[in-house]
Amino acid sequence: MTQVGHATARALLRRLAVEQAECRVPSLTAAIVRDGRTAWFGGRGRVGGAPPTPATQYRIGSITKSMVAVVVMRLRDEGLLRLSDPIGDHVKQTPLGQLTIAQLLSHTAGLTAEPPTTWWERSPGVPAADLLELLGPQDVKHRPGRRFHYSNVGFALLGELVAALRGTSWLSAVRGEVLAPLGMNDTTARPRAPHATGYAVHPWADVVQAEPEHDAEAMAPAGQLWSTTHDLASWAVFLGGDTGGVLCPGTLEEMREPVGVDDGDAWTGAFGLGLQLARSGGRRLAGHSGSMPGFLATVWADAGEGMGALFMANTTSGMTGTLLTDLLDIVQEYEPRLPDEWQPVAADPGLLALTGLWHWGPKPYALRLLPEGGLSLEPVGGAGRASRFVPQGDGTWLGLDGYYAGETLRVAADHLDLNTFIFTREPYSPGAPVPGGVRDWHA
C-alpha cells in the first residue's frame, strides 16, 4: 500500500520505527494520505503476536468529538439550529442552558474540563440524565466566550443536542450520517477483533499493564470510538476537503477557521468548530488528537497541499508529539508537490476592464480577476487589507475573506464603493463622491 517512492517509504518507516522503539510503544500504525487516497502505511510492534495492519482497531478518543461536530454542523445547515442558540433551547434538562452551541463546539464556553463524577476515562459511565443532574453553575469556570478552555463535558452536552434533534442516539446519528457515507465501517463504539489492547508502559522498566475500557455512556461523545488506519485515512481525506456529500465544503471551511487559541503566546495551536488547528512548518493543519487510557491517536489534514497524516498507538503516554509533522516533512523533502500548470482562461471583457490599479485615498491597490470569475483586491506591496470577492445576483460583490469578509463591494462608473470606502483610479480623484474636491497636490 504505497504510492510514494522507495526512498520516501524507507525514510517514513524509519521515522515510525524510531518512535516505536525509543518511546517504547507496544504497537504503532501510521499513514499518509495524498490526493484522496492512502499513499503510505506503516506499522511497528505487535498486536496479538503479529504486526498491526490497516485493519487493526485502536481507540481514537477525542477524534470522536470532530465526528459529533460534523453532525451538529449538518443540523445547522438544515436549519434545525443556529450556532448562536443557547444549548438550553434544544436540551431542556440542562442547568447550563445559557452556553451557546458555537461556544461548546470551540471550547470557549468556559465549561469545566471534566465531569463531576469519578475519573470518567477509567470508570464505567453514567447515564446522561444523571450527568445533567450533577452539573450546575459551579461547573462554568470562566466567563463564556472569554477564553479557550478544553471541555470534555461540552461534548457530552452536544451529544445530547444531536440526540434531541435527531430523535436517536448520538452514535446512531454519527454512524448513519458520517461513518457509513464515508465508508468507515470499521469505526465502532466498542472494540472488535482484531484490535489492540490498551497498555500503560512502566516509566522505569520495560513492562506493561493493561488499561481499563468501558462504555462512557453520557461522556461517550467526548471519546468513545475505535477505528482503524484504513478508516482514519478516509477521515483525513474528508478533513482535507473531499467531503463526499457528508458536509458542504464551505461548512467544513467554517469548521477549520480558528476561534480560540490553545497555546497562549505561541499562537501555533487553536480550535475551530469541533476541530483542532495547528500551524507547523508553513502548513495549516486541521484535525484532532485523541487520548484514552492505553491509547493515543492523531489525524491532521493539510487542505492546501491535499495531504494528511495519522497515527494510532496503544500506549497511555510517552510519544514525542512530532511524529506526524515529521512524516509530512519527509514527504515534502523527498517528493515535493509540483505546482499546477498555468493555463489561460476566458474572461468577461467588462470584468477585465475593472482590473488594474485602484486607490484608497493615496494607497494603491491591485484588482485582479481570479480564474473562477471572482475578484481579488489587495494592496500593492502586500501590506494592508486584502480580500477576495464573488459576484452576487444583484450586481454587487460579496467579500469572502480578510477584513472585508461578508462586506459588499459596489462597482460604479468611476469608482468602487466597498462598504463606504471609496477606491478610485487616481489618488483622491476629484470626481469621486468621497472625499471629493481634493484637487491640489503640492510641496
Automatic annotation (TrEMBL):
It comes from the Bacteria. Keywords: Hydrolase. Residues 348-425 form the DUF7586 domain. Residues 20-318 form the Beta-lactamase-related domain. GO terms for molecular function: hydrolase activity. It is an enzyme of class 3 (hydrolase). Its EC number is 3.-.-.-. PANTHER family: D-ALANYL-D-ALANINE CARBOXYPEPTIDASE, D-ALANYL-D-ALANINE-CARBOXYPEPTIDASE/ENDOPEPTIDASE AMPH. This is Serine hydrolase domain-containing protein. It comes from Nonomuraea purpurea. The lineage of its organism: Bacteria, Bacillati, Actinomycetota, Actinomycetes, Streptosporangiales.
